[in-house]
Amino acid sequence: MTAELVERTVLPPGVPLDQLADAVRHAHGGHAELVGASGERIVLPDEVFEVVQLVVLAMAAGQAVTIAPHHQTLTTQEAADLLGVSRPTVVRLLERGEIPYEQPGRHRRILLREVLAYQERRRHQRRASLDRMVEISEEADLYEATADFRPTR
């Protein structure tokens, strides 16, 4: 089977996936296998099994899943699309050294793993900032102060 490598969104099936979701939730990679109709077995690498887990759990929750292949090396526009920012923003991040890149000729090339690492660092920074804001609000009793507000409309 040959499939064209394009972005594709798949809707959850019309049948419950609870049993399958429970199976992948409690399974661990390394021993997961696909079994074909004629009984042939293919061991799934951990990375592939992780994708299967994410897809099954999302679909079991009633969510659609989008699969999008990415090259290992990205252009600034591809990195911008992945991060959900503009291309000039990505260029600024590169120039400030926040995301490593190579420039073998005229165009910058960014490794996918570097973009994903930056995305994860930003996620942790945002979470830490929110945690700190909650901590400051709790110390200042701001959560209690809102109980005295009366609705105006």
UniProtKB/TrEMBL annotation:
Domain called Helix-turn-helix: residue spans: 74-123
Pfam family, any one: HTH_17
SUPFAM superfamilies the UniProt entry points to: Putative DNA-binding domain
InterPro entries referenced in this protein's UniProt entry, alphabetically: DNA-bd_dom_put_sf (IPR009061), HTH_17 (IPR041657), SinI_DNA-bd (IPR010093), WH-like_DNA-bd_sf (IPR036388)
GO function terms (MF aspect): DNA binding
Domain of life of the native organism: Bacteria
Name of the featured protein: DNA binding domain-containing protein, excisionase family
